[in-house]
Amino acid sequence: MKATDIRKSFLDFFASKNHKIVSSASLLPESPNLLFTNAGMNQFVPYFLGDQQASSSRISDTQKCIRAGGKHNDLEDVGLDTYHHTFFEMLGNWSFGDYFKKEAIEWAWELLVDVWKFPPERLYATVYKPGVGDPADFDQEAHDLWSEIFQKAGLDPSIHVVTGGKKDNFWMMGETGPCGPCSELHLDLTPNGDSGGKLVNADSHLCIEIWNLVFIQFNADKRGTFSPLGSKHVDTGMGFERVAAVIQATKQFTDFSKPASNYDTDVFSPLFQKLEEMSGMSYQSTLPNNGKPTEGQEETDVAFRVIADHLRALSFSIADGILPGNSDRNYVLRRILRRAVRYGRTLGFTDPFFYKLVPVLVDQMGEFFPELTERKELIEKTLRSEEESFNKTLDRGIELFSRETKGMEAGQALSGKFAFKLYDTFGFPIDLTELMARERGLTIDHQEFEAQMDAQRKRARKAHKSVDILVSESSDCADSTIFTGYDLSCLNDFSATCIDWIEQEDKKYLVLDQSPFYAEMGGQMSDTGTAHFEGTSLKVKHVAKDSNGRFLHQVDGHSGASEVIGKAFSLTVDLAKRLAIQRHHTATHILHWALREVLGDHVRQAGSLVQQDRLRFDFSHFEAVSEEKLQTIERISNEKLLLNEQVKTYEIPFSEKPDGVIAFFGDKYGELVRVVDLGGWSQELCGGTHVQTGGEIGSIRVISESAISAGTRRLEAVAGLSAYQWTDERVNGYNQLLKRLGCQPHELDGRIDQMQGKVKNLEKQLRSIEQKGQSGIADGLINSAKERDGIKIITGKVTNLAPNDLRALTAQINKRCAPSVVLLASEKEGKCSMVCICSSQAVESGHKAGTYLAELSDKLGGKGGGKPDFAMGGAPANKGLDEALASHSLNT
Questions:
Q1: Secondary structure in 3-state letters for 574-596
Q2: What is the rounded distance in angstroms from the CA atom of residue 809 to the CA atom of residue 795?
Q3: pLDDT, tens digit (0-9, with 9 covering 90-100), for 432-491
Q4: Phi, psi at residue 191, to the nearest 5°?
Q5: I need a surface site. Which of 370, 606, 686, 892 has the fewest CB within 10 A?
Q6: With 0-12 CB in 10 A as exposed, 13-18 as middle and 19+ as buried, what is 398?
Q7: Do β-strands 647-653 and 672-678 pair in parallel, antiparallel, or remain unpaired?
Q8: Are 819 and 809 in contact (CB under 8 A)?
Q9: Residues of the chain whose pLDDT is less than 50?
Q10: Which domains does the chain have, with CATH numbers?
């Protein structure tokens, strides 16, 4: 029975039981507390809580799940055993106030035994029996139902019905909320099937859980009381890969001589076949002992499992719009990818290979999960871009690690300071350092590593310009400030009462019961203006919001809490500044829409800044945005402005927000959320202030697009008057250029080409003169060559050469006297440049340019490295270059 047949059979079975078959939810969860969708029940939580009405009282599906990062993290175990995954499918059937234990139990037995032909004598059911301090009563109903089923099968219920306590057989959504007993089905995989239930819940691979039936019948409150629910629900989950493993490994339950492995199935075999073709190695299903693979086949098989599993996790995540990045779930994906690439080295891959597996996965699973087919190109491009970026980091990190651990013996601890250097200076993830250390039998001094991390955090906090707002000791008031500033009529002479006055060092803060001043949050800068009372005018410089929701207005020109608390204030917001900020904020939403239209809906906000004169928008994307696409983004944004559509805002419970509303801003929302809707085509959750119609913005000009990290781009733009000023400056500059060059607009390109051609000819003549001089230098260095085992060794200091010139000279010498190792350095304008090149014969003899270059750069307090055949580096000048070269290992 193939895996696709198992999935189809499961869904067909429950369709025959009047279940509505629904699609898998996205791996990007609705819940702000989850990194990824990690269980089949995630998308149905609102139904259990009673917040939403289910589309059907009976539902069945297969749910895409990821467990890597956060509470459920299987990442480090993947590859080392037969069953851990970062990505897996969870088959499930659900009842929302419809059927309950009887139907759920009978149907589970019917599917396993009658349809899939599981041998009944090898099945064991567990039911809930509370221990001391456990909630609720013994699940007599489930026990009786299972007993009757096993008796009809001619089996002894006292053996095949096993009890378990809260740990194994009671399910809770959280500390409070819906919960209930669960009943699991376990399969005996011992050769003779005669374990007698003794291996159930004993963490044995010879008796594994197949299906968990959860009966949600109680509500737990904060007092620890478990009250019956008005409506009872069923929530079941069965691991798709695990079912495929037991059916296929046992040849449809006819042969139990071989342990079941999720990886020995056609879920993974197409990927393994492609890996075998690409690497020239074979997968043989070996497993390491004690989590440490030996060199050879075990190491190879671990790599196969890691790469195949991680490809699935990354491909499905990217298809759902979650790209590798530097924070939260995006960083988890980046770690997964880097772990896969690292294991790719075990199979001999030094160039990008990971993305080449995507077509195999798409062919295999794209029919059932069409998002894979639709996003195939995006998945491939993202993986290739990430892999190319990380390969550079990996080469450098592996080289430094090898040098540091040379001569170390198993059991020794690698310096935490060195591990931190790899992490902080070279961007080498600590988990990969741990992986390489584990492979060599080494440990890492984690205490020292954490000490280094703490020191870095302290430096970051010290450098970060922030204010720790303290509540006045004289006031017990923690009432939140009511924001009235969405209404423009409140921005002038608005009346409010002072409820607190805070003085912190040299700063003073006015706290009001209500305020039209927007407090800085969500990337939007705060309002400024004035606050008047009893003939005194205070300048409001900045507004922040504390954890109690109070707006703290930083003011100038007054002191004394007794003089202001309880007093009435007249507040006026700087209207011109507010309107300019609003234009830029709405422009941010429009650009967000345009980016998703042009680049794809994988684009997600990764940060923003909205000021009166500019905006900045960070977003997830795997490559630079071309000039042509930037022009399209700018054009369609301005086309939307011409429609002058109304900007509507409304509040709605988060659970009821329309599907088209984007909610990417940190994924943390209250019960009520505010929707900003422009023309129905741009809908986002946002608490900021906005224009009333799109036409108020005037125009939008994109001024730059750049990378801020791998997988994250930054767009900067101006709107309104700032856009006019930006354009005006460039038009004036263009006209001045035409005047200086004495040409008409249509002649400008030709005039510039003419000037550049002259410059290139002059540079070529100058280069020819310089090369003649360098030829003599090369002759002198070649004459000074030493020979070692048939390889010419040339080291030297050259006067006043730029890095590119030094590189050309080194290459010339290496070519003229190969086989050779050439290491040259030159000081110019306060910097020392270094280049090392090894000919192919030298590399074959064991010489490594990267190692020689790194040795020299370390002596000079610089940085440098590279591959065995070529390396470059730099260091400050006047650090003892002559002595460093003389003492270099090539000269000793």
A1: CHHHHHHHHHHHHHHHHHHHHHH
A2: 12
A3: 788 788 878 888 988 898 888 888 777 655 544 443 434 444 444 457 899 999 999 999
A4: -55, -40
A5: 892
A6: middle
A7: antiparallel
A8: no
A9: 463-477, 665-667
A10: 3-249 (3.30.930.10), 269-406 (no CATH), 408-465 (no CATH), 482-573 (2.40.30.130), 582-729 (3.30.980.10), 778-891 (3.10.310.40)
d(CA 702, CA 424): 33
Name beta bridge partners: 59. 20, 94
CB 592, CB 505: distance < 8 Å:
no
* Residue 114 per-residue DSSP state: I
Distance of CA 343 to the CA centre of its chain: 20
Type of residue found at 175 = E
Q: How far is CA 632 from CA 59, 474, 639, 677, 701, in A?
A: 43, 57, 10, 22, 12
pLDDT tens readout for residues 821-868: 999 999 998 999 999 999 999 999 999 999 999 999 999 999 888 889
User: What's the pLDDT score for residue 476?
Assistant: 44
At 111, give phi and psi (nearest 5°): -65, -50
566: left (phi over 0), alpha (psi -120 to 50) or beta: left
Q: How much is the pLDDT for 719?
A: 97
d(CA 308, CA 655): 36
Residue 46, Cβ density class (10 Å: 0-12 exposed, 13-18 middle, ≥19 buried) = middle
Burial pattern 163-177, b for ≥16 Cβ within 10 A else e, equals: bbebebbbbbbeeee
> What is the model's pLDDT at position 659?
75
Q: What is the pLDDT of residue 389?
A: 84
Encoded tokens for 634: 């700018």
